Each structure stands twice: as C-alpha cells, then as structure tokens.
Amino acid sequence: MTTQTVGLDKGTKDIIKATVPVLQEHGAEITKRFYELMLGNHPELKNIFNQTNQRKGDQPKALANTVYAAAANIDHLEVILPHVKQIAHKHRSLNIKPEQYPIVGKHLLLAIKDVLGDAATDDIINAWEKAYGVIADIFISVEKEMYEETLNKTGGWVDFRDFKVIKKVKESDVITSFYLEPVDGMPFPIYQPGQYITVKAEIEGEKYNHLRQYSLSCAPGEGYYRISVKREDSIGDLPAGVVSTYLHEQVEEGSILPISAPSGDFYLEKNDTRPLILMSGGVGLTPMVSMLETVIKEQPDRKVVFIHAAQSSKVHAMKDRITEISKQHINVESYIVYDKPCEGDACDKVGYIDAEWLKEILPTNDAAFYFCGPKGFMRAAYQNLKKYQVEDQDIHFEIFGPAEDITA
User: Fold this and answer.
1) Do 142 and 48 lie in a common domain?
2) How far is it, in rounded angstroms, from Cα 176 to Cα 113?
3) How far is the C-alpha of 19 from the C-alpha of 119, rounded, in Å?
4) Where on this chain does NADP(+) bind (predicted)?
C-alpha cells in the first residue's frame, strides 16, 4: 500500500493532514450530505445501501470514521489495511463494483464543498480528489483479490445465486432459522465459522431490493447453509425491519432466496488450542453457535465455555441445542444470563455479565475470547475482558451493521 501513496506529492498530503480537525468536527455532517446527494442522483444505489442504517445515522458515522482514519494516516495508509480489508469483505459480499467508486468519489467531493462552503478551497478539493483516487484504488485492488479467491473455491460464485429454503425453524419468540440449499444442485463452498452471507430480498411492493448480511449459524460442511434471523420490530420512530419481517412472515419452506458467497474477516482461529470463550448477547449467538459446533467436530478436546445473555427464555434461541452439546461433551461448559427472567426461568446469573463473575467461572484469562451481540453488550464485554486483564490480541468480536469503535 505504501507504494500507491507515492503518487501523492508532499503538498497534497500536507493539505489532507491539515483537514483532519475539520473532519473531526464536520465528518458526520459531510457524510450524511454525501449519502443524500449520491442516493438522490443515483437512486439505483438504494438497492445496495441499508436505508435503516441511513435513517439511524450509523452508515454516515461509519463512513466518516473511515475517511478520518485515511486522512490521519495519509503518509502510512498501510496502518488502515485491517480496516480496509474488513470493509472490503462487506463490499465483496454486497457485490460492489469498481465502476461504482467514481460515483462515490464525485459525491464525496460535492458533499465536502456543500458543507464547508468557501472553506473548501480549490486546493482542498483537488487534494481530496487525488487522495480519494489512491484510496479507491486500494479498495478495488483488495476486493479484486477477494472476488478471485471466492471464484477459485469449489462451488464458489460472484454476484447472487439462488438458494431454496429447505427448512424453517422457530428458535424463539423473535428468532427463526432458515436452512438453505442451492437451487442448481451444484457444489457450494464451505466457510470459516463466524462468516456471513448477504441475502437479497426482492419484496413485492418494494421499489428497491434490500440487502442484509446474516451470520451463518451452523458448522461448515453440514450440506446446507443456515441463518438465524431476529425479527426487528418497530421501536419508537424506527419502523420494523423490512427484511427480517419479510423473512419471518413471507418466506416459507420452498421459497427462493438469492444470496452471496460467504464472506467476513471474523472467524474462529483453529490453530489456537487454548481454552475458547464464546460470549453472546441476543441474536449475536449466531456466529458463536457456528464456532461451537465446529470446535466439537474439529477440536474435540479443546476446552470451551459458552456464555449467552438474553432478556429471558422467551427470546433465548437454540437453548436446547447448547444444553445438549454441554451434556454430550465434557470439555464444554455453558452459562445463561437473563436480565429480565420470566417466572420459572432457570439461569446461572440474573442481571448482566461482569468481570468479577467471569473471574469466578472461567478457567483462565490466557484464552481466545470471541463475542458478538448488540453494541451495548459489545462495549460492556470488551470493558469486562480488559478488567479481567485479557490481552488485546486474544479479543475478537463482530459488530452487526456498520463498523463502530466499541473500545473507547
């Protein structure tokens, strides 16, 4: 990546670095305006971007953080390579094309000019145009490799491929699993436990398609893909989830769903033989279940502790499956935490996971820790692990939706 920044002269880099404070102050406003302009001029891109995340402000905030990181590290863009790869995985899953990058660049510059007004001088706009070209080339290059890698896998494909729902199982009051097989009957690739697929929902009456990414919730090599989807009901001013409602209420056994090939950089490191600690909140258990089912098949002697937090048994998915695994495998322990248990609910802790409790139940902090769930759960989990003196390199997590810093 460093060689690609050679095309940026010192003057351009100096201008970019000088705009860092401006991005800190106006970044969210610029990116919000960017999406308004781009989607207004190119409404067909609404087939790609999650409109719920637009309304909530999550997508503009995530883009602002990415732009800020690129500006702050313009001399050494290799620093942001892990972040680039994480986004590139999502782009590959969404089938983002190289020809879409100039559209993004054009409207990002328009948004900067629109928000900053006269402060966005020609020198600043020209510097950002050059810098965006370099950054876009990095993304395109990384994504090209990912597309090629996907195609080279047995049964791999690019774009969307039709899968049939062969089984639909209600896991809790709000979570339902969908078992998927390819319509064409041809091979399809295995994946790393923790990865996700993108579902393209083509909903009657909706002007645009909707793309949503769902973690695969079973071990690889089972002969099917399984996603376990939470129905997102309306909360306050936020309407019910378009795709989750569609899946729960309209998709049945025999329905066809176009999906992308598995993707993602959050997955189980199988070379690690230390104890494995899996922590999940709500529907965040989906990648954790995939990891658990993989370990009992491929690392049957590895110590595993599975901790799941939910409001109550009514919304606790796959409880029986986790209990069954714990009983059948002496190396697996499982714990349940309910913060609003129903009458008669059995659990190991009422309330929330905390560092003191983790110290009581876990065998060691020299272990591999993976966690996933709502953002509040994620922040608390990270803080608890740091209180438990877990090393950063042993902490792994996945955020559903646009990337966000939970470590602050």
Assistant:
1) yes
2) 46
3) 11
4) 282-287
Among 259, 290, 320, give the residue marking a domain's end.
Answer: 259
pLDDT at residue 80, as a whole number: 82
Within a domain: 124: yes
Give the total number of structural domains in the chain: 3
Which is the catalytic residue, given 143, 171, 232, 398? Answer: 143
Q: Which residues are annotated as a binding site for FAD?
A: 196, 212-215
pLDDT band at 400 (very low <50, low <70, confident <90, very high): low
Between β-strands 161-170 and 256-259, what pairing exists: parallel, antiparallel or unpaired? antiparallel
Write the CATH number for 7. Answer: 1.10.490.10
Instruction: Give 76-129 pLDDT, tens digit per residue.
Output: 888 888 888 888 899 999 999 999 999 999 999 999 999 999 999 999 999 999
Q: Does the pLDDT of residue 2 top 60, yes or no?
A: no
pTM: 0.90
Q: Mark out the alpha helices in 73-156 (DSSP H runs).
A: 81-94, 101-116, 122-152
Q: What value does the mean pLDDT take over residues 183-190?
A: 96
Are 246 and 115 found together in one domain?
A: no
Examine the domain organization and report whether 307 and 365 are in the same domain: yes
Least confident of 26-30, 41-45, 379-383, 397-401: 397-401
Beta bridge mates, 161: 259
27 and 144 within one domain: yes
247 and 284 assigned to the same domain: no
Active site residue 35: no
> In which domain, by residue range, is 30 found?
2-152
Which residues belong to the annotated binding site?
91, 196, 212-215, 282-287
| Residue 108 included in any domain | yes
Exposure of 331 by Cβ count < 10 A (0-12 exposed, 13-18 middle, 19+ buried)? middle
Q: Which amino acids are annotated as binding site for heme b, given as ranges? A: 91
143 tagged catalytic: yes
Closest CA to 38 of 53, 14, 60, 6: 60
In the set 35, 101, 225, 267, the catalytic residue is 101
Assign 5 a pLDDT band (cuts: 50, 70, 90). very low
Last residue of a domain, one of 112, 130, 152: 152
